[in-house]
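Example 3.2
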Amino acid sequence: MKTRSKRYILNKQKIDATKLYSVADAVKLAKETSNNKFKNSIDIAIKLNLDTKKAEQQLRGNIALPHYFGKTTKILILDDSLTAEKAKEAKIEYFGGTDMIARIKEGWIDFDVIITIPKFMPLLAPLGKILGPKGLMPNPKLGTVTTNTLKTAAEFKAGKYSYRTDSFGNIHMKIGVVSAADDEIIENIDFLLSFIKSKRPAAVKGAFFQKIVLSSTMGPAIKIELPK
């Protein structure tokens, strides 16, 4: 059994595990119960009423939250028409074509997103075992297979997130940082929940949201009121 720190135990005592908190109260509690030895993020976990064995109930895509608190995204563009000058101007870390695919085959994955033109997808397909488990395989549904690689790269640089449900119907996402204003984190949460609600598959019966939890890095879970 995992041993919890005294700080964690004290912080958990501040939370009523039987209560569903408002978003505003949950944000305040997540900050109050954070571990101040670290630069804490505020994370959200959303449990949805989905049967992920059915393809139409596997949610995935991109979202740009109103306020971005993530790290700078390192991008690899696979586009043999892209010049070094244009790549530098767009602040693209890596670019190329078959040469970069060869590096991936050798185990190189020092990037957060691959954006590619369609012609390179057949060459990337055999690398699914390398890229798939890390969520790095380009996908048209995520907008990372495109004919306008620089435009897509600019969107990711500006704070676009990729999201997807896991096999249990959960979505996990960083929604803020402890040092951010409460209003900014609240706005991000409200925006995300409204966005996810709009993606509800028609086949889903009953309540779509089953559980929503907010927490700081290494902090205790705080349950949030479910959207109506």
